[in-house]
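Fold this: Rieske 2Fe-2S domain-containing protein
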Amino acid sequence: MSETHAPVRVCAAAELVDGGAGQRLNATYAGGDAVVFFVRYAGEAYGYLNRCAHVPMELDWVEGQFFESSGLYLMCATHGAIYQPETGKCVGGPCRGGRLRPVRVEERDTPEGRAVFWLPDDDLRPKSP
Ligand code: FES
């Protein structure tokens, strides 16, 4: 993946709670509008294109809510596909074996404290203002 795009600050590291609400950011994917989201699972931050592998719809049932009730899987609200948070692999539902499109995520210390950053690539980038 290219390193030519500037890292985008997503949120303070503490705002991304294990198995809790995700953070959404507007994006451009292959020239069209899209959303990326970031969650924390087992201590690590992960990010994906917010687009189900079944039908290209956003996953969250309420904006920013991606985990199902156990907090172990990401779930698509439309037909209930479940995904491993750490791999994006669909492990149940109509697109079993499919995958969410990952984005690169890094946590860094900044003068304002530790924060989560998205490292965009050529196809999936922040939406220009
Ligand atoms: S659109 Fe996600 S499971 Fe069908």
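Residues 8-126 form a domain with the Rieske Iron-sulfur Protein fold (CATH 2.102.10.10). The chain has one domain: 8-126.
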